[in-house]
C-alpha cells in the first residue's frame, strides 16, 4: 500500500512523535509498503520518501526534556496550511491510508482527525469524537465515572481565574495530590504537590499553556497500563517507578522506570483490568477499528483507578503499547500492520 505517516506536529510531544513516525516507517517498509514520512509542522514537511522496502530510515532520539513551545504558533500555522491545501494535502488524498503517529495537541485532540474526515482520507486510530472525548482528562473521567468505572475524586482549576477553588484546596489539605494539565500528554508538567504554595508554583509553570489544572489525590499503589487494539485487550504492563510520579523525564530517561509485561499479578486481577480497559475504550466512543491505552494506579487498598485513556499512545520501539504487543506474542511490525489493517478493512 501507499502509506503517508504523519508525525511531529505542534505539541509538547513533538519529539516523541518524530521517533514514533520513524519506527512506524521501518515496520511498514519491512511489511512491503511504500511510505512517505511527513511532519506537517516543519518548514519542509516531507521528511523522507517515497521510501520502498529496503530503504533506510534515519534514527531520532527523544531528549530528556520536552521541546520548547516558543515556536508553537508557527508550527500550528504550518500544520493547518499543510493539511488544508497544497502538496501535503495532495499526498494525503493520493495515499491508500494515512498512519497517524502524532501524539498530543492537534494530533490527538481531534483536530487532525476532523480535517482528514472532511477530506475523505482513511487514517489509523480513533475518529474526531473519541479523540476529543479522551483528550480532556476532566471530561473523560466524568464519563468513565458515570458508566461505573473506578476513578479518583478530582477538581479542576484554571490558574489566573482567581483564588484556589474550595474543592481544590480541600483535596490539597487532605493531600498529597497530583496536579497536571487537564489536556496534555506524555506526562508533561505532572507534579506531586503537598501544599497550596507548591500548587500555586506548579500552576504558574503551566499557566502559559492556557489549559486548566486537574488536581486529584496521589494514589500510592502500583501503576499499570492496558492497551486495546480493535476489540482485544493486550497483556497488562506494570510500571515500576523510581520517581514519585511518572513524568516526562521518567518516561524518556533510561533507568528511571522499569516496565514489566506481563505484569506479575494474579490472573483474576489482570483480567479485571483488561475488562476495565475495554469498558473505558468503548465508553469514550472508541470502536473496533481503533486502539487506545488506559492508565491505572492503585489506591491504598490496592484497587485500580482509571487515570486516563490515550487515543494515540506512543509507538516508539520502546513505548508501552509495543511492549504490550510483545507480551501478546506480536512483533513490532505485527502491531503496526494490525493497526493499519483496522483502518483499511
Average pLDDT works out at 91
Secondary-structure element string: EHEEHHEHHHHEHEEHEEEEHEHEEHH
How much strand content do the residues show?
15-25%
Count of discrete alpha- or pi-helical segments spanning 4 or more residues: 13
> By helix and strand content, what is the structural category?
alpha+beta
General form? globular
The CATH architecture of the largest domain would be 3-Layer(aba) Sandwich
Number of separate structural domains: 3
Main sheet properties: 6 strands, antiparallel
CATH class of the largest domain: Alpha Beta
CATH topology of the largest domain: Rossmann fold
Total number of beta strands: 14
- What gap, in angstroms, lies between the N and C termini? 13 Å
Plain-language structure description:
By secondary structure, this protein is an alpha+beta fold. It folds into three domains: 2-124, 3-Layer(aba) Sandwich (Rossmann fold), CATH 3.40.50.20; 134-150 and 219-311, D-amino Acid Aminotransferase, Chain A, domain 1; 155-217, Dna Ligase, domain 1 (2-Layer Sandwich), CATH 3.30.1490. It contains 13 helices and 14 strands. The strands form three sheets. Strands 9, 10, 11, 12, 13 and 14 form a six-stranded antiparallel sheet that branches. Helix 1 packs across helix 13 (332-344) and helix 2 (72-84) crosses helix 3 (86-94). The longest helix is centred in the first third of the chain and has 17 residues, at 14-30.
Entry keywords:
Dna Ligase, domain 1, Rossmann fold, globular, single chain, D-amino Acid Aminotransferase, Chain A, domain 1, alpha+beta, about 350 residues, 3 domains, four-stranded mixed beta sheet
